[in-house]
Each structure stands twice: as structure tokens, then as C-alpha cells.
Amino acid sequence: YALAECEKKLQNKVVMITAGPTVEAIDPVRYISNHSSGKMGYALARAAQLEGAEVRLVSGPVSLRDPHGVTTVRVTSAKQMFDYVKSNIADVDVFIGCAAVADYTPVEVASQKIKKNDDEMTLKLKRNPDILAWVGEQQATRFVVGFAAESQSLKEFALKKLQKKKLDLICANDISQQGLGFNSDNNQLLLLYRDGQEKLLDIATKDALAADIMQEIGEHLKQRS
Ligand code: CTP
Ligand code: CA
């Protein structure tokens, strides 16, 4: 469907979204990654585009098609995702970190396939950059949104991330609930704002939730200006 021009909430806004997992190579055939279908991030990209925004979607490997009218950039590792974000963030009004970024990456990538030898093997990992926290640190008027998938203490852990990463909004997702999140088409999200406001978006499709989140962001941008 098409929204009338006047109803579009993100006209003239640039929205950048990270989506999907990142994949960290161990050797030419093995990798470390996270569960993530990319569905939520892609739904957000479509919703932002429908609200009139210029959308930049930076995505790890997923089996989803590029959303119509959205600049979609495919990356593999967290480092590649971070490099794209740093190089293309200057004019971004709204940043949404929705990717399941691998927290650690192998210290060394073996150039040849590692052969199995002993009964145990140890892999040395180093921390990846926190892309969302880096964006939050930038002194900008940008609206910064994060996601938090938690298996316990949902609100407490999500609020900690909101503060630590200097976000305006965090969308908290209780992954202990069966049939929600990850590869599912449905989700339930608790929205927690920097100013203490909160809003529970009840179980719905990721497309419906994405539309709600974009409406919410549009309202907050309007209040700011
Ligand atoms: N995130 C990011 N870069 C990272 C790690 C996380 O941009 N290296 C972003 C995610 O896209 C998400 C938010 O930070 O929007 C929270 O990710 P999450 O994995 O829940 O939190 P972490 O800070 O990594 O903490 P932990 O995994 O220990 O719970
Ligand atoms: Ca993490």
C-alpha cells in the first residue's frame, strides 16, 4: 500500500539499519556465528522505506531478498559491518542496530583447513568492536536504537544496555518465550526509552512490529524538532 505523502513520518530522513548475523571465519571451511534470520532488520528497512526514509541496510549473510527501494549492502564479518557503518554514518538521522553481531572473532584465521588431531582443541578469540556502542558515543543529534535479546531479567539487562550504549530506545526481546524471535515470523517487544517511557508491543508479525517501531521513532523525532 502507499501512504499519502503528508502522512509519511520519516520523509527526508536517512535511516541506517544493521541486520542478520555476522560470520567470523576460523579457517576456509569453518566459522563462528549467531542465530539470526535477519527478518526483523529487513522488516524495519521496509517499514522505514514506506515511511519515506532513505534507507541503508547493512546485512550479514541471510536468505532474504533485498527490500525494494532500500540500499542493501551485504557483509560477512563484524569488522566489515563496522567499516561500512563508520564510512556511511555522517548524514544518518536514525540508526537501528538490529544485527546479531558476533561478540568474539578468532585471533587468527587459518589460511588452510585446520586438521583434527587431539580430543580437545582450544580456539583463541578476541572481542569484536561494539558497533552500536560506537554509534551511541558519537556526539550527534542522531536517534539511536538498539535491540536486546535476553533469556532472563529482560527489563533489567535491556535498561543496562540502553544506558551503557547511550541509546534513545531499546527494543527488548524475551528469547525464553517459545515460538518467538529468532527464525520466527512473530515477536513480542518491550520498548524502553532513555527518558523512562516504556511500551509493550504485543505478539505480532515482525512486519507489524516494524511498522509500529517506525511510527514510534517518527513521533519522537517530531517531539525533538
Ligand atoms: N551490538 C553491536 N555490535 C556488537 C554487539 C552488539 O552493534 N559487537 C548491538 C546489537 O546489534 C544489538 C545490541 O548491540 O542492537 C545489543 O546486542 P546484545 O548481543 O544483546 O548485547 P551485548 O552488548 O553484545 O551484550 P551480551 O551479548 O553480553 O548480552
Ligand atoms: Ca552480544
From TrEMBL:
Cofactor names: FMN; Mg(2+)
Keyword entries, A-Z: Decarboxylase, Flavoprotein, FMN, Ligase, Lyase, Magnesium, Metal-binding, Multifunctional enzyme
Residues of the full protein shown: 178 to 402 of 402
Region spans: Phosphopantothenate--cysteine ligase: 15-225
Gene Ontology biological process terms from the UniProt entry: coenzyme A biosynthetic process; pantothenate catabolic process
Pathways involved: Cofactor biosynthesis; coenzyme A biosynthesis; CoA from (R)-pantothenate: step 3/5; Cofactor biosynthesis; coenzyme A biosynthesis; CoA from (R)-pantothenate: step 2/5
Protein name: Coenzyme A biosynthesis bifunctional protein CoaBC
Family: In the N-terminal section; belongs to the HFCD (homo-oligomeric flavin containing Cys decarboxylase) superfamily. In the C-terminal section; belongs to the PPC synthetase family.
Binding site for CTP: G97, C98, A99, D103, K113, P129, D130, I131, L132, F147, K161, K165
Signal peptide positions (record): none
Annotated EC: 4.1.1.36, 6.3.2.5
Free-text remark on how the cofactor is bound: Binds 1 FMN per subunit.
Upper classification of the organism: Bacteria, Pseudomonadati, Pseudomonadota, Gammaproteobacteria, Oceanospirillales
Protein's organism: Aliikangiella marina
GO cellular component annotations of the record: phosphopantothenoylcysteine decarboxylase complex
Catalytic activity entry: (R)-4'-phosphopantothenate + L-cysteine + CTP = N-[(R)-4-phosphopantothenoyl]-L-cysteine + CMP + diphosphate + H(+); N-[(R)-4-phosphopantothenoyl]-L-cysteine + H(+) = (R)-4'-phosphopantetheine + CO2
